[in-house]
Design goal:
Layout: H1 3-15, H2 20-27, H3 31-38, H4 48-61, H5 67-74, E1 79-84, H6 92-104, E2 109-114, H7 119-131, E3 137-139, H8 147-155, E4 159-162, E5 173-176, H9 178-191, E6 197-201, H10 207-224, E7 231-234, H11 240-253, E8 259-262, H12 265-278, E9 287-292, E10 305-308, H13 311-326, E11 335-338, E12 341-343
Parallel strand pairs: 1-2, 1-3, 3-4, 4-5, 5-11, 6-7, 6-8, 8-9, 9-10
Antiparallel strand pairs: 10-12
Helix pairs in contact: 2-3, 2-4, 6-13, 9-10, 11-12
Length: 352
């Protein structure tokens, strides 16, 4: 074929729609080799030189993979759904980013849905993702005894819980050891001389809220015995507003407390707001510990002592679980619990 005719053929392909067969002919290889070169999960099967040659032909011909055709052929859309309760909570973006990064490595796209702590919106998002044919779901919003778990199972969609655990054996989960984190926080305050330690907790219908309160209560009883009452108030959600309201209730009922362990950093910021409105000094009057070590917790006034949650590792391990499920693998140990670390800053102090 002369140069003019070849150029004309390339132009014609660009003006129509180049196919994988066209790319294979241009590169002088079988179409299956082109398919491997374009699939991140199989690219390692061919040489880097071949990948470069095929990539050049793809660019030259303006080839674009047909996602619908690929889905029909493989029965996979190469998409997943990720559902979180509140993207405004800084704990969630690092988890989502890790999931996106991991799935991006194998050529998947993650669609992210935000529920704003609304159960109806959560159900609608799950319905939408299932109807769109996602290959799997990672859900950070499951409640305890959540009927939405059954919806995912009945739909046959591989599903992984992250951050929260619905405590269903059919659903693999990755979470932090909430109870141990709260116990470590209580021990830290007890070592500083505090005896009137209270808890501002999150909702008790989710594993994070319930397990953190249980961890606080057990550690409190272990440190001070049954004669020292366990003091706690709870927010309806893990938000600043709920933290402020719960802290006000706590201080109205128990004004002599010297320390608070909050169920997360957002609740802790709400406590700081309540302190400010009441003229309570932190840590001069009341020490405060949060949970998660969200972004900028070292920049608030005072810098917040908190339990650090390994957010990126949560997302990465949840993604790996889901990849295994999508690939049809059996997960033998489907409940993964990660440790947290105490980060001591200026919001907690020794008392005499």
């Amino acid at each position: 074929m002369d140069r003019a005719k070849k150029t004309k053929t390339k132009a014609t392909l660009r003006n129509s729609r180049a196919t994988i067969i066209d790319v294979a002919e241009q590169a002088g290889v079988h179409w299956s080799t082109v398919s491997r070169a374009l699939n991140p999960a199989k690219r390692h099967l061919i040489s880097s030189e071949m990948i470069e040659r095929i990539s050049a032909c793809v660019e030259e011909l303006g080839y674009r993979q047909n996602a619908m055709a690929s889905a029909l052929r493989t029965q996979k859309t190469r998409t997943i759904g990720v559902i979180v309760s509140n993207l405004g909570d800084p704990i969630h973006p690092p988890i989502v980013r890790a999931i996106e990064d991991r799935f991006g490595e194998i050529g998947y796209v993650a669609f992210v849905g935000n529920t704003d702590n609304d159960s109806e919106r959560e159900a609608a998002l799950i319905d939408r993702f299932i109807s769109q044919g996602v290959d799997g779901l990672i859900v950070a919003t499951f409640k305890l005894k959540d009927p939405l778990v059954d919806k995912c199972l009945q739909a046959g969609v591989p599903t992984v819980a992250v951050f929260r655990d619905p405590e269903r054996p059919e659903i693999p989960s990755v979470r932090v050891d909430d109870a141990k984190a709260m116990a470590q926080a209580v021990r830290h305050l007890a070592a500083l001389g505090h005896r009137r330690i209270a808890h501002v907790g999150g909702p008790q219908n989710v594993s994070t809220g319930r397990n953190r309160y249980r961890g606080f209560r057990r550690a409190h009883l272990a440190a001070f015995g049954a004669g020292n009452a366990v003091l706690a108030t709870f927010g309806n959600a893990f938000t600043v507003d709920d933290g402020r309201t719960a802290c006000d209730q706590l201080l109205d009922q128990h004004p002599t407390i010297t320390a608070i362990v909050a169920g997360n950093d957002m609740l802790a910021i709400g406590c700081l707001s309540a302190f400010h409105q009441r003229g309570v000094a932190c840590p001069g009057d009341i020490s405060l510990i949060g949970m998660n070590d969200m972004l900028f917790m070292d920049a608030v006034n005072p810098p917040l002592t908190t339990m650090r949650t390994p957010s990126r590792e949560l997302g990465l391990q949840a993604a790996n679980f889901l990849i295994d499920l999508i690939d049809g693998k059996t997960i033998e140990k489907g409940k993964r619990v990660l440790p947290s670390d105490l980060i001591v800053r200026s919001s907690s102090r020794t008392i005499g």
